[in-house]
Amino acid sequence: MKRWIGPLAVLMACAAATHAAALHFAPSFIMSRAMEALAARGIALHRFTSPQRVTPQSQSVVRSSPDLYYALCRYDLANPGTQISVRMGAWPDYQSLSFFAAQTDNFATIRGTGREVVVRLLALGSAPEDGAIVSPTAKGVILIRRLAPDAEAFAAATTAGQADSCRITWRDRIAAPSLD
Amino acid sequence: MWRSLTYLGAVIAGSLLGLGSALYMAGLWPGANTLAFGNVDVGGWRADFSTGSDAADPYTRARVARHGLLALAKSEAVYLTRTTDDAGQPLSEDCSYRLTGGAMPAGWWSVTLYDAKSMLPANTDNALSIDASRAGAGPWEAVIASERPAEATHWISSRNAGNFDLTLRLYMPDPALLEAPAQTLSAPRIERLACGGKA
Fold it and tell me: With contact defined as beta carbons under 8 Å apart, do B56 and B76 qualify?
């Protein structure tokens, strides 16, 4: 009996380690695969891509709502000297600007109030600043949702989306003091 | 030699056991249940209000990544999912249902039908959901069926859905809903009308 204690202990240790590792890495792995799929479908890095209305034929993310307009921007802030400048255009109905980390956490959301929203996303480890959000991971996704339950509203949301922007910039050029 | 093989077998068996149990417990096992989980249960509609937040445990985070990627945190939206009718039977494309409800404690709401893979069912019926803008302010009713019913104001198509579930989205939820969901939300009811053409 004693000779099985060692292998049994190894079995249990491997089971616990694999269990914990699978849970730890699964969300970021799934997110990474989803982002690759989105990239393959034309969702750009550091740019909002004009979305198609969500239908069974166009859906690319699980449990998308056919009643919402989704504009996605993938980001990569691996270089700490960079930041993402984001603008969400005005929209009279419900809209939100939400930020998702690589492990899928929704670490910030700004609800629209009808007016344009401008915010900066800073790299992991940056000091907090007014008008800026610090990303908890180097990579992630920025998502604009607009309420658009029919084709007419979706067309209007698409027009409003022309004012959206998501672009990577150098922090020092943005933060340089004005001489006026 | 025998001893080495025993330890090698223990490593392989332990790794498989750990991986399999993690996938099963996190709802990642093929065919596993979708988002109908969590500590919130309002009339059979299930939710975990830690979805999307850093308070989510590893199992919730993994399950949401698979079945509800890019879900918002509860301050902006909550998601409740239901897989059975009021009699406790699984929702199926082979049956038709009457979905009824009223006003919701949220700024906007919708009910959307998804198949077992958490995708919209592969049909072209353009009848995938009902939402607050179509339902109006008072009591509302929709029929869920694989073919458009002759008399129904609102229709949600289950064509090509197989066994499906419904997700209730509540955007801009009232604070009371987050505090006491069972006391605040009058959840939609799902009455089975007929199966396989029989009432």
Answer: no
* Confidence label for B16 from pLDDT (cuts 50, 70 and 90): confident
> Which CATH code for domain A1-180?
2.60.40
Residues B116 and B174 in one domain: yes
Q: B70, B72, B126, B157: which to substitute to probe chain A, counting the most A Cβ within 10 Å?
A: B70
- Both tokens assigned to B159: 């064509």
Query: Model's pTM, two decimal places?
Result: 0.86
Q: What is the model's pLDDT at position B36? A: 63
Q: Which of A1, A19, A99, A144 to mutate to test the interface with B (most CBs of B within 10 A)?
A: A19
Say yes or no for a CB contact (<8 Å) between A96 and B21: no
Residue from A106, A51, A100 nearest A74 by CA: A100
What's the rounded mean pLDDT across residues B37-63?
81
Domain ranges, residue B16: 1-32
Residue A141 to residue B70, Cβ atoms within 8 A: yes
Mean pLDDT for back-to-back runs of 10 residues, chain A (180 residues): 82 83 77 77 85 90 92 92 95 96 91 94 92 94 95 96 95 52
**Token pair of A46, please?**
């550091």
* CB-based burial label for A172 (10 Å; 0-12, 13-18, 19+): exposed
What is the phi/psi pair of residue B119, to 5°? -115, 160
Burial B81-92 (b: 16+ CB within 10 A, else e): bbbebeeeeebb
ipTM of the modeled complex: 0.85
